[in-house]
Write a structure and sequence with these properties.
Layout lengths: L13 H16 L1 H10 L6 E16 L2 E16 L3 E5 L6 H9 L6 E6 L2 E2 L7 E4 L11 H12 L4 H14 L15 H14 L4 E5 L7 H17 L3 E6 L2 H7 L2 E6 L2 E7 L8 H4 L3 H13 L1
Parallel strand pairs: 3-8, 3-9, 6-7, 7-8
Antiparallel strand pairs: 1-2, 1-4, 4-5, 9-10
Helix pairs in contact: 1-2, 4-5, 4-6, 5-6, 8-10
Length: 297
């Protein structure tokens, strides 16, 4: 029986399409249940993002001369399902280039990016990007901004979309601000709206490019704590770009250090979860990891 909340495309295999899209809608409504099911089925350590000899170069024409600059690579690494991976490095180390390659926003010069076993040829609904600037539409309310992805994907009809939007605004602590416009919100609140918008289509993989880089240090720590709370409730694979050693250690299961476009270190963070950003900063293990990463940088 067709789910009335889901628009099912007409095809030769209508029953299969109905089942698949019904499952997708339930995953949007109850993402944590699906994450728990994946862990229970032994999927936790399954590779979901794989980089194979990945390279990205840029060519600049100066007169008759072509100057080739290597921005990234070669890099080979894999990321497991539900893992929170911090990509740490100085400015110009290739962090954002790496994220944009995984997102499919740019194409590699050489090598491959595979997500869920499929070669990345462009952006897709399985990957959502949260940028440093929230990039909200100023003429749309908070609710309308969060609903945008659902409208574009046509995943859910209005009643279901409203349910998803309200749940996510509650999740990011903005349940009472749905009717506000972006210019009526603080920078931190705008970033929360951007996160809710990214989560609305329930991407399997969340790509975050220094999302708290434009706010002050105190708010940055508060937003980091908020992200940890949300991720514990609604787990998915996260690739998080940062130049802050403390932020990378506080958030991540694993920190990959980039230096001059290459992987300089790959460190597993065994600090216990859930993590309190205030308390963890005095932990001897945290301080030892911090010293090690600063030395690498």
């Amino acid at each position: 029986m067709q789910n009335p909340d889901v628009e099912v495309p007409v095809s030769e295999n209508a029953h299969a399409a109905d089942q698949e899209e019904g499952d997708e809608l339930r995953r949007v409504r109850f993402p944590t249940v699906f994450a728990v099911a994946r862990r229970a089925n032994g999927v936790k350590d399954q590779t979901v993002i794989e980089l194979r000899e990945l390279c990205r170069t840029f060519v600049v024409q100066r007169g008759r001369e072509e100057i080739v600059t290597r921005a990234l690579g070669p890099i080979t690494l894999s990321i497991a399902d539900l893992q929170f991976v911090g990509i740490l490095g100085r400015s110009g180390s290739g962090k954002t280039t790496l994220l944009r390659l995984i997102a499919g926003l740019v194409q590699p010069t050489a090598g491959d990016v595979l997500v869920d076993g499929q070669r990345v040829r462009g952006p897709g609904p399985d990957r959502a990007v949260v940028f440093q600037q929230s990039a909200l539409y100023p003429w749309r309310t908070v609710e309308a901004n969060v609903r945008l992805g659902l409208e574009l994907s046509r995943l859910a009809k209005k009643g279901t979309a409203d349910e998803i939007v309200h749940r996510l605004l509650d999740l990011v602590g903005l349940g009472d601000f749905g009717g506000y416009y972006p210019n009526q919100l603080s920078g931190g609140m705008q970033q929360r709206v951007g996160l809710a918008r990214a989560l609305a289509v329930s991407p399997r993989h969340l790509l975050m490019d220094e999302p708290f880089g434009s706010v002050d240090a105190i708010l940055r720590r508060e937003l980091g704590a908020e992200l940890l709370r949300i991720w514990e409730l609604d787990r998915r694979t996260v690739v998080f770009i940062t130049h802050s050693v403390e932020e990378a250690l506080t958030l991540s299961d694993r920190v990959i250090v980039l230096k001059d476009g290459l992987v300089a270190d790959d460190v597993t963070i065994n600090l216990p979860r859930p993590r309190d950003p205030e308390a963890i900063s005095d932990d001897p293990a945290f301080l030892q990891l911090r010293r090690s990463l600063l030395t690498t940088l």
